[in-house]
TrEMBL record:
Pfam family, one: Aldo_ket_red
UniProt protein name: Aldo-keto reductase family 1 member A1 isoform X2
InterPro entries: AKR (IPR020471), Aldo/ket_reductase_CS (IPR018170), NAD(P)_OxRdtase_dom_sf (IPR036812), NADP_OxRdtase_dom (IPR023210)
SUPFAM superfamilies with a match to the protein in the record: NAD(P)-linked oxidoreductase
Source species: Xenopus laevis
The family this protein is said to belong to: Belongs to the aldo/keto reductase family.
GO molecular function list: oxidoreductase activity
Amino acid sequence: MEKLVEKGLTKAIGLSNFNKRQTDDILSIATVKPAALQVECHPYLAQNELISYCHAHGLVVTGYSPLGSPDRSWRKPEDPVLLEEPGVIAMAKKYNKSEAQILLRWQVQRRVVTIPKSVTPVRILQNLQVFDFCLSEEEMQLIGALNRNWRYIIPLITVNGKSVPRDAGHPLYPFNDPY
């Protein structure tokens, strides 16, 4: 990818699903510093330490699945649902915004770029309408307190009747490290 930058074929390069250790490894050898790290990031997987690390090293954090991917095909009935959190619902009513807008605004105030998925024109427009209000520090903390290190986007397989991460045994599997 560095050669693509050198040839002028791209302006910047980035990383995806790297942990701190893996990012450190890249930063120690990179001739072209990555501009961004893309990771799953939402209130149930706040990634606070990784975000602080990235900001300290000049990397932009891009959070995918910022709404918890409620339409994912492998969703289980017992999985937590971000858009149904009582505190988020109360804030949405207070600000006359959708629950999704509250969650996206939380990320904006944390300096996390988000990439919410939608094919619905109204929702796409709503996803952009998060810059006309601010959450209070107390509200930011309330949403932050939802963190439970819960990953929605992780390939699972069934082993002996139990769902387990498909790639957890790989030596470069990024999610075994704390961040």
